[in-house]
Amino acid sequence: MSSNKNILKAFYLILISSCLFIYPIIISFKKDGTFWKSKFLTVNKDGSITYIPDENGNTIPDFSNVGYHHGLIEIPDIKVVKNLNPVQGDAGKAIQQAIDEVAALAPDRNGYRGAILLKKGSYPISGSISIQTSGIILRGEGGVTKLIATGKGQRSLIKVSGKGKVIEVKNSRVEIVDDYVPTGAKSFNIASSEGLKKGDRIIVFRPGTEAWIHDLKMDQIIARDGTKQWTAQEYNLSYERQITAINGNKISIDNPIVMSMDKKYGGGEVFKYQYAGRLAENGIENMRFESEFVGDVDEDHAWVAVEFDHIENGWVRNVSSYYFGNSCVSLRPGAKNITVTDSKCFDAKSIITGGRRYSFNNEGQQNLFQNLETTEGRHDYVTGARVNGPNVFYNCKSRKTHADIGPHHRWASGTLYDNIDTDGEINVQDRGNWGSGHGWSGVTQVLWNCKVSGAAVQNPWVSGKNYAIGLRGKKLKGRLDGKESGEWEGLNQSDLEPSSLFKAQLKARSTK
User: Fold this and answer.
1) Where are the transmembrane segments (predicted)?
2) 3-state secondary structure of 383
3) Domain covering 75-163+276-349+357-378 assigned CATH 1.10.10.10 in the classification
């Protein structure tokens, strides 16, 4: 009996010793990598997200309400109403004629006129194809449908564009009365909600002021030939939003504030607007684009494969471009709620310098770029000057890069770079006197779980922060000395949870 007790005692000692040995390994394993979580937000058991505010109430914004119909409607498969086969010689005239014929059709109750199917084969085009009517989809049969931009001349091969601009509804402007509206907020107080209702489209207007530019030090850019200091009137920012609720004089909006609004810098206002002439429900899909060229540095050939402007709720999917000088897809300032997905931009041909090789370019609002791939680009996933978010680049890859990804110049606000994999850099910084005086490239720029060769992520002097969370690569000091580091967390630490902020935010919408 005593022998059995000794054996049992020895067993327990071995078990306890094993636990003491294994326990710190488990703790270390969890601490060092597996499923670590950001201090800026918490994903709850039901999938909802709790955002952790800073001392001023600012949070990382909700980026989920972007893309075609804010991601609430799947991109549809529209019925074919016109078939085209390859023709001898220039096919541009035949394609344009088909577009014009479909434009004359009455739209259905969802706004679609129909799809034009380009059957497999090659379609040489010496000029440009223009879609200026809503509800028209141009579709190929995949990579076997090739649209070839022939001859010389920088141009967009396909241009989908309405017309017009934001027009303020008279007597609808009202002041935001809160002293400070933080980044991430979806509601705020106004002087009076009279005349407003749920569903109204409004502009959230944030004025540029000399005081703000001075505190941002953008009137102090070290000058070289052509450098322009920032001026207040150039930085009046207009964010398109829709009212989702009204409670007294407090209004709620569909997409968050992506740049804090502070009374000391002019506060903000809202007004109703119209955008007559803007297109809707247009798509380009399932085809390959090529540009003719005469050498690797040829500049006299097609520049952009697909350009969108003055359009809301459209898409580009499953396309590829080869040998263009600038972009596969370029969304201009009037493009809103566009989804660009499952597409590629390969082997650009141009001089490798400024103004070229912006593989997937965004200048619009509430747009989604996802599942993309590039080679030989400069600024592959990029925003331009004064681009107002939210906007998202998700699950995108770049190889053989010649410059950096990110906000290119002049104060883009509210962009998520989520799971970007590049052999180059992603930078969010004061670009100083590059270009004509780019200065601070952006605010509320969030890099989430990205893989890079290096990244410079800095905070501007005022009006917000930039984030590098779960970034794998080298932390760079940036172009200029003396700049404040951005919000870095988990550098070179894998297994961030959630692995995608964008996907987690999409899931969280279903819990509301």
Assistant:
1) 7-29
2) strand
3) no
